[in-house]
Design goal:
Elements lengths: L11 H5 L15 H42 L5 H23 L5
Helix pairs in contact: 2-3
């Protein structure tokens, strides 16, 4: 049977270049000073934006939690205040437990 003309022909360059001998390197275009500055700037941005925001949120929740405990412990609080404090306390604790042990998405 004769070979068809549209069959793929062997590449002569494949015989000359062994793919096992090639290496690939990725180098950055920035110098070490620029990289150090960029990394320091990114770290400070992370601290300022993410950690401070998280810290302020935790502080607000802790203040509300302490206030609720005070309202529940003080005898002069009215029953309406105690019901309100118990409701807020339950919400905070439910949210904290859900945050700590909640379902993780993949």
């Amino acid at each position: 049977m004769a070979a068809r003309s549209h069959d793929p022909q062997p590449n002569p360059l494949a015989k000359q270049f062994d793919p096992k001998k090639f290496t690939v390197e990725i180098k950055t275009a920035e110098n070490p000073m620029e990289m150090d500055y960029r990394l320091r700037k990114e770290f400070l941005s992370f601290v300022a934006k993410d950690l401070c925001t998280f810290g302020v949120a935790i502080l607000i929740v802790l203040v509300a939690l302490i206030y609720c405990f005070v309202v529940l412990v003080v005898r002069s609080s009215s029953p309406e205040e105690k019901n309100w404090a118990m409701s807020v306390l339950t919400s905070i604790l439910t949210g904290a437990i859900g945050f700590a042990f909640g379902k993780s998405s993949k």
